[in-house]
Structures are given as C-alpha cells and as structure tokens.
Design brief:
Blueprint: E1 3-5, H1 9-17, E2 22-28, E3 32-37, E4 43-55, E5 59-61, H2 65-75, E6 80-86, E7 91-96, E8 101-114
Antiparallel strand pairs: 1-8, 2-3, 3-4, 4-5, 4-8, 6-7, 7-8
Length: 115
C-alpha cells in the first residue's frame, strides 16, 4: 500500500529537485488535479480552491479558467507542466506549451502518494 503524505512540502521538494519531470495527469472538476513525477514516481493530488488563468505578467482572469485548463488536459496533456510551486501561498502554477496558456491553482489540500 502506498504511503500518503498530506503536505505540500513533498510537491515543492519534487519541483525543486527535478522540475521538468512534473506533468499534469488528470483533472476532475470542480476540485481535483493530479500531477505525476516521472523521475521519482510520486503522484501528487491537489484539492483545488480556485483556478485562475494568467494573462501577461500581472493580469488574472477567473472566468472560464477551469474550462480552459480542462481543455488543455483533454487535448494536449503532454505539453502541460508545472512551472511554480509555492507552499507558503498554497499556489501551483501550470503552463501549456501548446496553447501558451498559464494557470494558477490555489490548493486547499496537498496529498502525495509515494510507491
């Protein structure tokens, strides 16, 4: 049975050590997102509070952000990667290389499953 850790520290550590190995594997709206690390085989599940679409450097838009992220996961999942993890603010940022969209996820709960 896999060990489950309920802390964002494991996702932050995973991102710090091998950031290019983290990719979004599933999105179940309205409140679950799954991120997997191909390097250490850890699976991270976040309970989502809000999803915001990042526009430019400072503009943010919440309208349709969840639908936009769901579209990226469904249509080009391989190009959707984690670009920032900030456990202090409970924020995970994602970027889709295909459509050049950025998303900020406010996490209410972090869970890490290690094999």
């Amino acid at each position: 049975m896999a060990t489950i850790f309920r802390s964002g520290a494991f996702l932050q550590q995973c991102f710090s050590v091998h950031p290019l190995a983290l990719g979004v594997k599933m999105l179940t709206l309205p409140d679950k997102i799954g991120i997997a690390c191909v390097h250490c085989k850890s699976r991270h599940r976040l309970t989502i509070g809000t999803i915001t679409r990042l526009v430019g450097d400072s503009e943010r838009d919440e309208d349709g952000a969840a639908t936009g992220l769901a579209s990226c996961v469904a249509n080009h999942q391989q190009t959707l990667h984690v670009t920032e993890v900030c456990v202090e603010r409970n924020i995970v940022q994602l970027r889709c290389r295909e459509c050049k969209a950025g998303f900020q996820v406010m996490a209410l709960l972090f869970e890490t499953y290690q094999p």
